[in-house]
Amino acid sequence: MITIALSKGRIFEETLPLLAAAGIVPSESPEASRKLIIGTNRPDVQLIIVRASDVPTYVQHGAADLGVAGKDVLIEHGGDGLYQPVDLNIAKCRMMVATRVGFDYATAVQRGARLRVATKYVQTARLHFAAKGVHCDLIKLYGSMELAPLVGLADVIVDLVSTGNTLTANHLVAVEEIMTISSRLVVNEAAMKLKHATLQPIVEAFRQAAGG
Ligand code: ATP
Ligand code: PRP
User: Fold this and answer.
1) pLDDT at residue 111 greater than cutoff 90
2) Which atom of ligand 2 is found nearest the CA of 120?
3) Any idea where the domains of the chain sit in the sequence?
4) What is the pLDDT of residue 198?
5) Among 38, 72, 130, 156, which residue has the least CB neighbours within 10 Å?
6) Cβ-contact 37, 23 below 8 angstroms
7) How far, in Å, CA of 146 to CA of 143, rounded?
8) Reduced to 3 states, what is the DSSP secondary structure of residue 179?
9) Is the CB of 164 under 6 A from ligand 2?
10) Which of 144, 161, 168 for a ligand 2 pocket mutation test, highest count of atoms within 8 Å of Cβ?
């Protein structure tokens, strides 16, 4: 059996065409059925539905052979035990530093003041500000980061931005891009060796469908 870990929502939707290119069609939608294990047209392939940030953990421990995870999630996880053979070019967005409109980020950074940074992406934020030589206090949040500067919890946030609508709706502005983000195919290192004959065609179909 080949098990593929996916998260509901944009990753599932954007992975469907890639699965189809590999000849894999889910037998139902996770939104409609609420099932966490979903069969496919192939008796030897099943999907498991997990939180986006849990995908690398399932694949690392071999509970799934393959998975699809954002670069943001992979940086936070660390990537141990995972091959990342294909950038799928899906779920594209940017990791940004954002502040309240009117907050003088450039001056705060130059002054050498400690910056209060609220984020779900503490690894990414730590590396970014360390590389700039900016001292920061990291405040770990699990969502709704946009609220933090509005209520005085933090000076800045580090969050994903796509259209910018969420920032605008909350009177925030992006002041720095940290990196561009897309999702990658991840493969359990041991499975890649032990199940090579079955996994390799799936990896190659994903690679071709993703454009290279
Ligand atoms: P979790 O459920 O673990 O808290 P999440 O809510 O971030 O994670 P999703 O919203 O499904 O999960 O996002 C999955 C992935 O899609 C993210 O890891 C990121 O790589 C990418 N992503 C997040 N937000 C956007 C966006 N607005 N536009 C495009 N891609 C995005
Ligand atoms: C992500 C991210 C931002 C938003 C940015 O949230 O955390 O809040 O998208 O997108 P925008 O620039 O197009 O507005 P998501 O939609 O995944 O919501 P969630 O984190 O609550 O799942």
Assistant:
1) no
2) 7
3) 2-91+182-209, 93-181
4) 97
5) 130
6) no
7) 8
8) strand
9) yes
10) 161
Topology adopted by domain 2-91+182-209: D-Maltodextrin-Binding Protein; domain 2 (3.40.190)
Question: What are the residues whose beta carbons fall under 8 Å from the beta carbon of 36, sequence distance 6 or more?
Answer: 30, 48, 49, 50
What are the structure tokens assigned to 95, written together?
A: 């990791």
The β-bridge partners of 117 are 138, 156
Burial class from Cβ neighbours inside 10 Å (0-12, 13-18, 19+) for residue 95 reads buried
DSSP 30: H
Read off the pLDDT of residues 37-85 as tens digits, 9 standing for 90 and up: 999 999 999 999 999 999 999 999 999 999 999 999 999 999 999 999 9
State whether the beta carbon of 174 lies less than 6 angstroms from ligand 2: no
Strands (E), the chain: 2-6, 37-39, 45-49, 66-70, 82-87, 93-100, 115-119, 136-140, 156-161, 172-181, 183-188
pLDDT of residue 110: 86
* Assigned token pair, 126: 């730590």
CATH class for the region spanning 93-181: alpha beta
